[in-house]
Amino acid sequence: MGDIVKTRIAGRVIETGVGLAHRSPRVRGWLLDRMTRHLDASYSEWSSDREILRLHRWFANSLRPFVERLIVERPRAAKAIGRFVYAWARDVARRSRSRAPDRCAPCTVVIEATDRCNLRCPGCYASSTREGSDLPYDLLAELVAQSADMGVTLITISGGEPFMREREDLTLTRLARSFPDLGFLVYTNGTLIDDEIARRLYEVGNIFPAISVEGYQRETDARRGRGCYARTRAVRDLLARHEIMYGFSATVTSRNAELIASDEFIQRRIEEGDLFGWFFLYQPIGRQPDPALMVSAEQRAALREKIYQWRAEGKPIFLGDFWNDGVLSHGCLAGGTRYFHIYANGDISPCVFSPVACGNIRDIVRGTSPYRSLADLVNHHPFFVGFREKQRQIEDYRAPCMLIDHPDLFRELCRQVPFYSAKNMADGYLDGAIAREIDRRAAEWREKIRGLPYLPECVRLAPAEQAMSESAAR
Predict the structure, then answer these.
(1) Measuring CA to CA, which residue among 290, 278, 127 is closest to residue 213?
(2) Is the separation of the CB atoms in 246 and 211 below 8 Å?
(3) CB count in 10 Å sphere of residue 202
(4) Per-residue pLDDT tens for 310-325?
(5) Is the per-residue pLDDT at 23 higher than 70?
(6) What is 100-474's CATH number?
(7) What is the pLDDT at residue 102?
(8) What's the predicted TM-score (pTM) here?
(9) How do 318-321 and 356-357 pair as beta strands?
(10) Where are the domains of the chain?
(11) Cα separations in angstroms, 77 against 73, 183, 246, 404
(12) How far apart, in Å, are the Cα atoms of 149 and each of 140, 152, 389?
Protein backbone atom coordinates (compact mmCIF):
# COMPACT_ATOMS: atom_id res chain seq x y z
CA MET A 1 0.00 0.00 0.00
CA GLY A 2 1.43 3.40 -0.98
CA ASP A 3 2.36 6.08 1.55
CA ILE A 4 -0.37 8.42 0.30
CA VAL A 5 -3.11 5.80 0.72
CA LYS A 6 -1.77 4.85 4.17
CA THR A 7 -1.70 8.50 5.20
CA ARG A 8 -5.27 9.09 4.03
CA ILE A 9 -6.54 6.02 5.90
CA ALA A 10 -4.62 7.05 9.01
CA GLY A 11 -6.07 10.55 8.64
CA ARG A 12 -9.61 9.22 8.81
CA VAL A 13 -8.79 7.10 11.85
CA ILE A 14 -7.19 10.13 13.53
CA GLU A 15 -10.22 12.33 12.79
CA THR A 16 -12.52 9.75 14.36
CA GLY A 17 -10.20 9.39 17.36
CA VAL A 18 -9.97 13.16 17.92
CA GLY A 19 -13.74 13.47 17.75
CA LEU A 20 -14.12 10.84 20.47
CA ALA A 21 -11.23 12.32 22.48
CA HIS A 22 -12.90 15.73 22.47
CA ARG A 23 -15.84 14.23 24.38
CA SER A 24 -14.06 11.64 26.52
CA PRO A 25 -11.06 12.25 28.83
CA ARG A 26 -10.36 8.51 28.85
CA VAL A 27 -10.15 8.35 25.06
CA ARG A 28 -8.13 11.56 25.11
CA GLY A 29 -5.50 9.98 27.36
CA TRP A 30 -5.33 6.91 25.16
CA LEU A 31 -4.91 9.01 22.01
CA LEU A 32 -2.17 11.12 23.59
CA ASP A 33 -0.32 7.95 24.52
CA ARG A 34 -0.61 6.64 20.97
CA MET A 35 0.62 9.88 19.41
CA THR A 36 3.55 10.07 21.83
CA ARG A 37 4.60 6.49 21.10
CA HIS A 38 4.29 7.10 17.36
CA LEU A 39 6.65 10.07 17.57
CA ASP A 40 8.98 8.15 19.85
CA ALA A 41 9.25 5.30 17.35
CA SER A 42 10.07 7.75 14.55
CA TYR A 43 12.83 9.40 16.60
CA SER A 44 14.32 5.98 17.29
CA GLU A 45 14.79 5.57 13.55
CA TRP A 46 16.30 9.05 13.29
CA SER A 47 19.01 8.55 15.89
CA SER A 48 20.53 5.80 18.00
CA ASP A 49 22.16 8.24 20.43
CA ARG A 50 20.66 7.48 23.84
CA GLU A 51 20.98 11.02 25.20
CA ILE A 52 19.38 12.56 22.12
CA LEU A 53 16.50 10.11 22.35
CA ARG A 54 16.02 10.84 26.05
CA LEU A 55 15.83 14.57 25.33
CA HIS A 56 13.35 14.07 22.51
CA ARG A 57 11.21 11.90 24.76
CA TRP A 58 11.28 14.58 27.44
CA PHE A 59 10.26 17.17 24.87
CA ALA A 60 7.47 14.97 23.47
CA ASN A 61 6.14 14.41 26.97
CA SER A 62 6.15 18.19 27.59
CA LEU A 63 3.82 18.63 24.60
CA ARG A 64 0.97 16.60 26.09
CA PRO A 65 -0.74 19.60 27.80
CA PHE A 66 -0.61 21.51 24.51
CA VAL A 67 -2.18 18.65 22.55
CA GLU A 68 -4.84 18.07 25.19
CA ARG A 69 -5.75 21.76 25.16
CA LEU A 70 -5.90 21.68 21.37
CA ILE A 71 -8.29 18.73 21.39
CA VAL A 72 -10.55 20.34 23.99
CA GLU A 73 -10.58 23.90 22.59
CA ARG A 74 -10.21 23.38 18.81
CA PRO A 75 -11.25 19.84 17.86
CA ARG A 76 -11.31 20.60 14.13
CA ALA A 77 -7.79 21.99 14.24
CA ALA A 78 -6.76 18.99 16.36
CA LYS A 79 -7.84 16.67 13.55
CA ALA A 80 -5.57 18.51 11.12
CA ILE A 81 -2.71 18.44 13.63
CA GLY A 82 -3.27 14.72 14.19
CA ARG A 83 -2.94 14.08 10.46
CA PHE A 84 0.12 16.31 10.38
CA VAL A 85 1.79 14.54 13.34
CA TYR A 86 1.22 11.18 11.64
CA ALA A 87 2.74 12.48 8.39
CA TRP A 88 5.59 14.12 10.31
CA ALA A 89 6.46 10.89 12.10
CA ARG A 90 6.26 8.98 8.83
CA ASP A 91 8.55 11.49 7.15
CA VAL A 92 11.05 11.52 10.03
CA ALA A 93 11.61 7.86 9.27
CA ARG A 94 11.60 8.47 5.52
CA ARG A 95 14.08 11.35 5.84
CA SER A 96 16.34 9.25 8.05
CA ARG A 97 16.44 6.44 5.52
CA SER A 98 17.14 8.78 2.61
CA ARG A 99 19.78 10.96 4.27
CA ALA A 100 23.25 10.64 2.78
CA PRO A 101 26.34 12.86 2.45
CA ASP A 102 25.15 14.07 -0.98
CA ARG A 103 21.41 14.04 -0.30
CA CYS A 104 19.52 16.41 2.00
CA ALA A 105 16.25 15.47 3.65
CA PRO A 106 14.73 18.71 5.01
CA CYS A 107 11.60 18.72 7.14
CA THR A 108 10.51 22.24 6.19
CA VAL A 109 11.16 24.99 3.67
CA VAL A 110 10.49 28.70 4.15
CA ILE A 111 8.95 30.28 1.03
CA GLU A 112 8.15 33.95 0.62
CA ALA A 113 4.86 34.06 -1.29
CA THR A 114 5.40 37.82 -1.60
CA ASP A 115 7.76 40.41 -0.21
CA ARG A 116 5.04 43.06 -0.34
CA CYS A 117 3.50 44.18 2.96
CA ASN A 118 0.73 46.50 4.09
CA LEU A 119 2.91 47.71 7.00
CA ARG A 120 6.34 49.28 7.06
CA CYS A 121 7.93 48.18 10.33
CA PRO A 122 11.33 49.66 11.21
CA GLY A 123 14.11 47.12 11.02
CA CYS A 124 12.13 44.64 8.90
CA TYR A 125 14.52 41.76 8.19
CA ALA A 126 12.90 41.20 4.77
CA SER A 127 12.93 44.90 3.75
CA SER A 128 9.26 44.56 2.79
CA THR A 129 7.42 47.43 1.11
CA ARG A 130 4.03 47.92 -0.57
CA GLU A 131 5.66 47.21 -3.93
CA GLY A 132 7.78 44.17 -4.59
CA SER A 133 7.92 40.63 -5.92
CA ASP A 134 5.48 37.73 -5.92
CA LEU A 135 6.00 34.07 -6.69
CA PRO A 136 3.21 33.12 -9.14
CA TYR A 137 0.80 30.50 -7.85
CA ASP A 138 1.85 27.82 -10.35
CA LEU A 139 5.49 28.28 -9.37
CA LEU A 140 4.58 28.17 -5.67
CA ALA A 141 2.70 24.91 -6.21
CA GLU A 142 5.69 23.47 -8.06
CA LEU A 143 8.00 24.50 -5.21
CA VAL A 144 5.73 22.84 -2.65
CA ALA A 145 5.54 19.65 -4.74
CA GLN A 146 9.33 19.48 -5.18
CA SER A 147 9.85 20.19 -1.48
CA ALA A 148 7.43 17.41 -0.51
CA ASP A 149 9.39 15.03 -2.76
CA MET A 150 12.50 15.91 -0.72
CA GLY A 151 10.71 14.83 2.49
CA VAL A 152 9.29 18.17 3.64
CA THR A 153 6.18 17.87 5.82
CA LEU A 154 5.74 21.49 6.95
CA ILE A 155 5.61 24.33 4.42
CA THR A 156 6.42 27.65 6.07
CA ILE A 157 5.07 30.70 4.24
CA SER A 158 6.60 34.06 5.06
CA GLY A 159 6.75 37.50 3.51
CA GLY A 160 6.13 40.32 3.23
CA GLU A 161 2.56 39.75 4.29
CA PRO A 162 1.28 36.41 2.92
CA PHE A 163 -2.38 37.28 3.42
CA MET A 164 -2.04 39.96 0.73
CA ARG A 165 -1.83 37.01 -1.67
CA GLU A 166 -4.79 35.26 -0.04
CA ARG A 167 -6.91 38.37 -0.52
CA GLU A 168 -5.83 38.73 -4.13
CA ASP A 169 -6.00 35.18 -5.51
CA LEU A 170 -6.63 32.73 -2.60
CA THR A 171 -3.02 31.58 -2.84
CA LEU A 172 -2.77 30.12 0.67
CA THR A 173 -6.01 28.16 0.74
CA ARG A 174 -5.49 26.91 -2.82
CA LEU A 175 -2.12 25.48 -1.77
CA ALA A 176 -3.62 23.95 1.36
CA ARG A 177 -6.36 22.24 -0.67
CA SER A 178 -3.88 20.97 -3.23
CA PHE A 179 -1.61 19.47 -0.54
CA PRO A 180 -3.94 18.30 2.26
CA ASP A 181 -1.33 16.04 3.87
CA LEU A 182 1.07 18.95 4.50
CA GLY A 183 0.91 21.61 7.19
CA PHE A 184 1.22 25.29 6.27
CA LEU A 185 2.71 27.57 8.94
CA VAL A 186 2.08 31.18 7.86
CA TYR A 187 3.95 34.10 9.45
CA THR A 188 1.70 37.14 9.36
CA ASN A 189 1.12 40.52 10.97
CA GLY A 190 -2.51 39.40 11.22
CA THR A 191 -4.10 42.67 10.18
CA LEU A 192 -5.56 41.43 6.87
CA ILE A 193 -7.43 38.38 8.22
CA ASP A 194 -11.19 38.95 8.10
CA ASP A 195 -14.26 36.76 8.57
CA GLU A 196 -14.22 35.51 4.96
CA ILE A 197 -10.57 34.48 5.19
CA ALA A 198 -11.15 32.84 8.58
CA ARG A 199 -14.00 30.84 7.06
CA ARG A 200 -11.72 29.59 4.28
CA LEU A 201 -9.02 28.68 6.81
CA TYR A 202 -11.64 26.67 8.70
CA GLU A 203 -12.58 24.80 5.53
CA VAL A 204 -9.03 23.70 4.69
CA GLY A 205 -7.92 23.11 8.28
CA ASN A 206 -4.16 22.79 7.63
CA ILE A 207 -3.10 26.47 7.71
CA PHE A 208 -1.72 27.71 11.03
CA PRO A 209 -1.18 31.50 11.30
CA ALA A 210 1.70 32.76 13.47
CA ILE A 211 0.84 36.36 14.36
CA SER A 212 3.69 38.75 15.14
CA VAL A 213 3.90 40.38 18.56
CA GLU A 214 6.58 42.58 20.07
CA GLY A 215 5.31 42.31 23.65
CA TYR A 216 2.08 43.98 24.78
CA GLN A 217 0.11 46.76 23.10
CA ARG A 218 2.67 49.52 23.65
CA GLU A 219 5.57 47.52 22.23
CA THR A 220 3.62 46.08 19.29
CA ASP A 221 2.03 49.37 18.26
CA ALA A 222 5.35 51.20 18.60
CA ARG A 223 6.88 49.01 15.91
CA ARG A 224 3.93 48.00 13.75
CA GLY A 225 1.65 51.02 13.97
CA ARG A 226 -1.08 52.36 16.18
CA GLY A 227 -3.99 49.97 16.62
CA CYS A 228 -2.14 46.84 15.39
CA TYR A 229 -2.31 45.06 18.74
CA ALA A 230 -6.06 45.66 19.12
CA ARG A 231 -6.64 44.54 15.55
CA THR A 232 -4.72 41.31 16.00
CA ARG A 233 -6.49 40.60 19.28
CA ALA A 234 -9.82 40.84 17.44
CA VAL A 235 -8.40 38.55 14.73
CA ARG A 236 -7.41 36.00 17.39
CA ASP A 237 -11.01 35.97 18.66
CA LEU A 238 -12.20 35.47 15.09
CA LEU A 239 -9.80 32.59 14.46
CA ALA A 240 -10.75 30.93 17.76
CA ARG A 241 -14.44 31.05 16.81
CA HIS A 242 -13.57 29.23 13.59
CA GLU A 243 -11.54 26.60 15.53
CA ILE A 244 -8.28 27.50 13.80
CA MET A 245 -4.98 26.76 15.49
CA TYR A 246 -2.98 29.97 15.64
CA GLY A 247 -0.01 31.19 17.61
CA PHE A 248 2.53 33.97 17.89
CA SER A 249 5.90 34.96 16.50
CA ALA A 250 8.08 37.16 18.70
CA THR A 251 11.24 38.97 17.65
CA VAL A 252 13.38 39.23 20.78
CA THR A 253 15.50 42.38 21.02
CA SER A 254 17.66 44.01 23.68
CA ARG A 255 14.64 46.25 24.43
CA ASN A 256 11.91 43.64 24.95
CA ALA A 257 13.87 40.54 26.03
CA GLU A 258 12.95 40.76 29.73
CA LEU A 259 9.27 41.30 28.93
CA ILE A 260 9.08 38.38 26.50
CA ALA A 261 10.91 36.06 28.93
CA SER A 262 8.33 36.76 31.65
CA ASP A 263 5.59 34.51 33.01
CA GLU A 264 3.11 37.34 32.44
CA PHE A 265 3.88 37.41 28.73
CA ILE A 266 3.35 33.70 28.11
CA GLN A 267 0.20 33.71 30.24
CA ARG A 268 -1.18 36.57 28.13
CA ARG A 269 -0.46 34.63 24.98
CA ILE A 270 -2.29 31.57 26.34
CA GLU A 271 -5.25 33.71 27.47
CA GLU A 272 -5.53 35.23 24.00
CA GLY A 273 -5.78 31.75 22.49
CA ASP A 274 -2.28 31.17 21.13
CA LEU A 275 -1.49 27.46 20.92
CA PHE A 276 2.09 27.81 19.74
CA GLY A 277 4.83 30.39 19.71
CA TRP A 278 8.16 30.97 17.96
CA PHE A 279 10.95 33.10 19.39
CA PHE A 280 13.47 34.72 17.02
CA LEU A 281 16.51 36.68 18.13
CA TYR A 282 16.83 40.00 16.32
CA GLN A 283 19.13 39.81 13.29
CA PRO A 284 20.84 42.92 11.84
CA ILE A 285 19.75 42.50 8.21
CA GLY A 286 17.08 44.11 6.07
CA ARG A 287 15.82 47.67 6.36
CA GLN A 288 18.01 50.00 8.46
CA PRO A 289 19.32 47.31 10.82
CA ASP A 290 20.38 48.38 14.30
CA PRO A 291 22.94 45.96 15.78
CA ALA A 292 22.34 47.50 19.21
CA LEU A 293 19.02 45.61 19.21
CA MET A 294 20.80 42.25 19.30
CA VAL A 295 20.25 40.56 22.66
CA SER A 296 23.02 40.31 25.21
CA ALA A 297 24.36 36.98 26.40
CA GLU A 298 22.53 37.43 29.71
CA GLN A 299 19.23 38.08 27.93
CA ARG A 300 19.66 35.08 25.65
CA ALA A 301 20.49 32.80 28.58
CA ALA A 302 17.46 34.03 30.52
CA LEU A 303 15.19 33.34 27.54
CA ARG A 304 16.64 29.84 27.15
CA GLU A 305 16.08 29.05 30.82
CA LYS A 306 12.55 30.43 30.84
CA ILE A 307 11.36 28.51 27.77
CA TYR A 308 12.67 25.23 29.15
CA GLN A 309 11.00 26.08 32.45
CA TRP A 310 7.65 26.68 30.75
CA ARG A 311 7.97 23.30 29.03
CA ALA A 312 8.86 21.55 32.30
CA GLU A 313 5.88 23.20 34.01
CA GLY A 314 3.55 21.83 31.35
CA LYS A 315 2.37 25.13 29.89
CA PRO A 316 -0.35 24.17 27.37
CA ILE A 317 1.39 25.75 24.41
CA PHE A 318 4.01 24.55 21.90
CA LEU A 319 7.12 26.75 22.06
CA GLY A 320 10.07 26.89 19.71
CA ASP A 321 13.24 28.91 20.36
CA PHE A 322 14.94 29.23 16.99
CA TRP A 323 18.52 29.53 18.33
CA ASN A 324 18.44 28.23 21.89
CA ASP A 325 16.87 24.94 20.80
CA GLY A 326 20.07 23.92 19.05
CA VAL A 327 20.60 21.14 21.58
CA LEU A 328 17.09 19.83 20.94
CA SER A 329 17.46 19.98 17.14
CA HIS A 330 21.02 18.58 17.27
CA GLY A 331 22.49 21.68 15.68
CA CYS A 332 21.60 24.22 13.03
CA LEU A 333 18.69 23.35 10.73
CA ALA A 334 19.69 25.55 7.80
CA GLY A 335 21.57 24.86 4.58
CA GLY A 336 19.26 22.00 3.66
CA THR A 337 20.17 19.99 6.76
CA ARG A 338 16.59 20.43 7.96
CA TYR A 339 15.41 23.48 6.02
CA PHE A 340 16.26 26.20 3.50
CA HIS A 341 14.72 29.42 2.20
CA ILE A 342 13.30 30.82 -1.04
CA TYR A 343 12.82 34.56 -1.55
CA ALA A 344 9.78 36.07 -3.29
CA ASN A 345 11.94 36.91 -6.31
CA GLY A 346 12.87 33.22 -6.62
CA ASP A 347 16.35 33.42 -5.07
CA ILE A 348 17.34 30.33 -3.07
CA SER A 349 19.20 30.77 0.21
CA PRO A 350 20.51 28.47 2.97
CA CYS A 351 18.61 30.35 5.70
CA VAL A 352 16.00 33.06 6.17
CA PHE A 353 18.59 35.12 8.03
CA SER A 354 21.59 34.54 5.75
CA PRO A 355 21.33 37.41 3.23
CA VAL A 356 22.96 35.51 0.38
CA ALA A 357 21.58 33.75 -2.68
CA CYS A 358 22.88 30.74 -4.59
CA GLY A 359 20.56 30.55 -7.61
CA ASN A 360 17.01 31.26 -8.70
CA ILE A 361 14.11 28.85 -9.09
CA ARG A 362 12.98 30.63 -12.26
CA ASP A 363 16.29 29.77 -13.93
CA ILE A 364 15.87 26.14 -12.89
CA VAL A 365 12.35 26.01 -14.34
CA ARG A 366 13.49 27.68 -17.58
CA GLY A 367 16.39 25.25 -17.92
CA THR A 368 19.01 28.01 -17.87
CA SER A 369 20.51 26.90 -14.55
CA PRO A 370 23.15 24.17 -14.23
CA TYR A 371 20.83 22.57 -11.65
CA ARG A 372 17.93 20.42 -12.80
CA SER A 373 15.68 20.84 -9.77
CA LEU A 374 15.37 22.46 -6.39
CA ALA A 375 16.74 19.32 -4.75
CA ASP A 376 19.69 19.27 -7.15
CA LEU A 377 20.68 22.81 -6.16
CA VAL A 378 20.22 22.25 -2.41
CA ASN A 379 22.17 19.01 -2.54
CA HIS A 380 25.03 20.09 -4.80
CA HIS A 381 25.50 23.87 -4.95
CA PRO A 382 28.98 24.60 -3.49
CA PHE A 383 27.60 27.18 -1.05
CA PHE A 384 25.01 24.76 0.35
CA VAL A 385 27.57 21.95 0.49
CA GLY A 386 30.08 24.27 2.17
CA PHE A 387 27.42 25.50 4.58
CA ARG A 388 26.78 21.96 5.79
CA GLU A 389 30.51 21.26 6.04
CA LYS A 390 30.96 24.31 8.26
CA GLN A 391 27.99 23.21 10.39
CA ARG A 392 29.79 19.95 11.15
CA GLN A 393 32.67 21.94 12.68
CA ILE A 394 30.34 23.26 15.40
CA GLU A 395 30.42 20.86 18.34
CA ASP A 396 28.55 22.80 21.07
CA TYR A 397 24.91 22.98 20.04
CA ARG A 398 24.20 25.69 22.60
CA ALA A 399 25.88 27.95 20.05
CA PRO A 400 24.63 26.32 16.84
CA CYS A 401 24.44 29.22 14.38
CA MET A 402 27.12 30.27 11.90
CA LEU A 403 25.51 33.67 11.44
CA ILE A 404 25.55 34.93 15.04
CA ASP A 405 27.53 32.35 17.02
CA HIS A 406 30.35 31.52 14.57
CA PRO A 407 30.33 34.37 12.03
CA ASP A 408 33.97 33.68 11.17
CA LEU A 409 32.89 30.37 9.62
CA PHE A 410 30.18 32.07 7.57
CA ARG A 411 32.53 34.78 6.27
CA GLU A 412 35.16 32.15 5.48
CA LEU A 413 32.57 30.32 3.38
CA CYS A 414 31.64 33.56 1.62
CA ARG A 415 35.29 34.05 0.68
CA GLN A 416 35.67 30.49 -0.56
CA VAL A 417 32.50 29.92 -2.58
CA PRO A 418 30.61 32.05 -5.13
CA PHE A 419 27.32 33.65 -4.07
CA TYR A 420 25.48 36.90 -4.65
CA SER A 421 23.95 39.26 -2.12
CA ALA A 422 20.26 38.82 -1.42
CA LYS A 423 17.93 41.81 -1.28
CA ASN A 424 18.19 42.09 2.53
CA MET A 425 22.01 42.15 2.74
CA ALA A 426 22.90 45.21 4.83
CA ASP A 427 25.96 47.39 4.32
CA GLY A 428 28.68 46.26 6.70
CA TYR A 429 27.15 42.85 7.36
CA LEU A 430 30.23 40.94 6.19
CA ASP A 431 33.02 43.45 6.75
CA GLY A 432 31.83 46.59 8.54
CA ALA A 433 30.27 47.92 11.73
CA ILE A 434 27.53 45.28 11.76
CA ALA A 435 30.10 42.50 11.39
CA ARG A 436 32.11 43.86 14.31
CA GLU A 437 29.04 43.96 16.56
CA ILE A 438 28.04 40.42 15.56
CA ASP A 439 31.58 39.28 16.46
CA ARG A 440 31.34 40.96 19.86
CA ARG A 441 27.97 39.36 20.65
CA ALA A 442 29.17 35.95 19.41
CA ALA A 443 32.23 36.05 21.67
CA GLU A 444 30.07 37.15 24.58
CA TRP A 445 27.69 34.22 24.09
CA ARG A 446 30.43 31.62 23.65
CA GLU A 447 31.99 32.81 26.90
CA LYS A 448 28.62 32.80 28.65
CA ILE A 449 27.82 29.17 27.85
CA ARG A 450 31.12 28.03 29.33
CA GLY A 451 29.49 28.54 32.73
CA LEU A 452 26.05 27.16 31.81
CA PRO A 453 24.90 23.54 32.10
CA TYR A 454 24.45 21.88 28.74
CA LEU A 455 20.73 21.65 29.54
CA PRO A 456 18.89 23.89 32.00
CA GLU A 457 18.48 22.48 35.48
CA CYS A 458 14.70 22.33 35.11
CA VAL A 459 15.01 19.52 32.56
CA ARG A 460 14.49 16.18 34.26
CA LEU A 461 15.35 13.66 31.56
CA ALA A 462 15.21 10.46 33.60
CA PRO A 463 11.67 10.95 35.00
CA ALA A 464 10.42 11.94 31.56
CA GLU A 465 11.98 8.83 30.06
CA GLN A 466 10.40 6.70 32.79
CA ALA A 467 7.00 8.27 32.11
CA MET A 468 7.46 7.50 28.44
CA SER A 469 8.28 3.86 29.20
CA GLU A 470 5.22 3.54 31.44
CA SER A 471 3.08 5.13 28.74
CA ALA A 472 4.41 2.68 26.14
CA ALA A 473 3.69 -0.24 28.45
CA ARG A 474 0.06 0.83 28.76
Answers:
(1) 278
(2) yes
(3) 16
(4) 999 999 999 999 999 9
(5) yes
(6) 3.20.20.70
(7) 65
(8) 0.90
(9) unpaired
(10) 3-99, 100-474
(11) 9, 11, 9, 36
(12) 14, 7, 24
